[in-house]
Amino acid sequence: MNTFSPIQVALIDLDGTLVDTLGDFEAALHACIRDLGGNPQAADRAFIARTIGRGTENLLRHTLLQVGIDPIQQGCWDHALARYFHHYHLINGQFSYIYPGVQSGLSQMQQAGWRLACLTNKPAQYARTLLERKGLLNHFEHLFGGDTFPRKKPDPLPLQEACRIMESAPAATLMVGDSANDAHAAKAAGCPAVLVNYGYNHGESVDDLPAMAFIDRLDQLPLPSHTLTGSTS
After folding, report:
1. Residue 46 — pLDDT band, cuts 50, 70, 90?
2. Which of 13, 15, 20, 24 is catalytic?
3. pLDDT tens for residues 78-123?
4. How far apart are CA 123 and CA 148, in angstroms?
5. 206 Cβ partners below 8 Å, 6+ apart?
6. What is the mean pLDDT of the chain?
7. Is 147 a catalytic residue?
């Protein structure tokens, strides 16, 4: 059994951890597909849920391929990306909701003295707008988006840079997320991780991922006065 030093900072993922944004993604992707003359029914909610998590470009490219549109071969990638962002800008937050326990969980962490930052693969401007519309932005000292650093999770760089900016040692910086991206990035960066059970994780269970704990609600997160133990192997 391993233990880690008292937590000072929590880096918290957005999509699938704080907010269920599947409805926003589905609406924006389907509108983009229609703009390109494709059939959106070929990319259903289950497919989109499995594809969320590795950044906007990855999500759009794989969704277009799923409906028979190869944006690179057909030379329409820039147009497709522009149409997607057009629709997502209009939709952002309309078809999404905050998960139960998130507001109380964030408040409990702040009351316990943790400094909070949101660390997401979503582009920063859309993440900021979503958090603001959902009344969550004021909980966070920093927001790090998928375009803030040169690489995205599961690369450890975003966590390493977040630790540097927040002047927090990796061992004292907790990553809270819902997917393999969060768990593997945290492990490589030397940060402990806790995963929620209700997120996306590419349609797979989080049970076998390298995390110290698995929780059903954010307000179940152990606070600094508790000792969090578990295996990181």
Report:
1. very high
2. 13
3. 999 999 999 999 999 999 999 999 999 999 999 999 999 999 999 9
4. 8
5. 178, 179, 180, 183, 195, 196, 197, 199, 214
6. 92
7. no
